[in-house]
Amino acid sequence: MRRVFIDLANEGDTLAMPVKDSNGNILLAEGTKLRKATKDKLSKHGVRTIYVTTGEDLGLIQPLEGNRDEAIKAISRQPLKDILLQKANTFSKSNTRSVILNEVIEEIVSFMLNKTSLLVHFAHLRLIDNYTYEHSLDVCALSLVVGEKLRLTRTTLFNLGLGALIHDIGKTKVSLQISRNPGKLSDEEFAQIKKHPSLGFVILKELEDNIPLVCCQIALQHHERFSGSGYPRGLKENKTHKLSYVVGICDMYTAITSHRSYRKAFSPKEAMELFMGTCNSLFPTEIVKAFLDAVVAYPNGSKVKLSNGVLAKVVKQDTLSLKPIVKPINSQQGYEIRLANAETLDIVGFYE
Ligand SMILES: [Fe+2]
User: Fold this and answer.
1) Ligand 1 center to residue 171 CA distance, Å?
2) What's the domain count of the chain?
3) Which residues surround ligand 1, an ion (CB under 5 A)?
4) Whether residue 217 sits in one domain with residue 79
5) pLDDT tens for residues 250-265?
6) By residue range, what is the domain housing residue 29?
């Protein structure tokens, strides 16, 4: 089974999971073969991604139905550490695997699994919406990669990673209908969503599990922006904790590179170009630079679709450009394209 964006799913693919709308109504049953009309119908209902069958198990996180106890058991069973480590290695520009990241991820996962009341809230995230849960794992892995670039101490890296993992915990207190809405929110609904940082702070502070204060601050401040344009408090510049800015930029990156029914996803390269213009407006320059230095737009080995329709594999990173060097699938041996030199050619998305 693998998860694919609806736009990139192939006609003839078989659904590995039923597709439901935001109210939980089944739109298409498991086992349905995708056709053009089916894809259009799903897009119309705001469905962003679907699960299709493959011959191999790629170890992706499966959506979960059921109650909290089942969700907690599923998290305990899930090789959370392996998933976080795999994500961190994928996002990182560095070719060498970091021992510190490995150990810090291990500490974060043990902390989470040993703190019952925190685990209950974390498991709840997954029941609300698999997207929010998977997003939390992405933000955690990305934040650790950026934190390592910032040469944070081991304890600070732990706090950063844990704070990133639970930054959206306040969404468990926002109405289910709003949390699950994949479409554009009304002003009233957005006002409700904007409460999740403060709600998260209260949840974490009130837990008996002794969550480090800075992790609570990350939950409270991850939507604050350097210019004061963020929420909930509109804090300016260094009034926001540095770690909250790290989680903020990683949160924004994963959000804008994901599809929404009301807008197309930014490609990773477009998102990074956007960040280049955000120094000292959305995030401090130091954090933007660390992000751009640490995170790779198209990881080596990823399969991409080019603007001329050709399918290719990323073989190397280009140190002078965000565009990598790719090798078209089915090309002759040794034929590679340095996309930085091919002005009219670009990557338009991933494919599996
Ligand atoms: Fe958030």
Assistant:
1) 8
2) 3
3) 168
4) yes
5) 999 998 887 665 566 7
6) 2-52
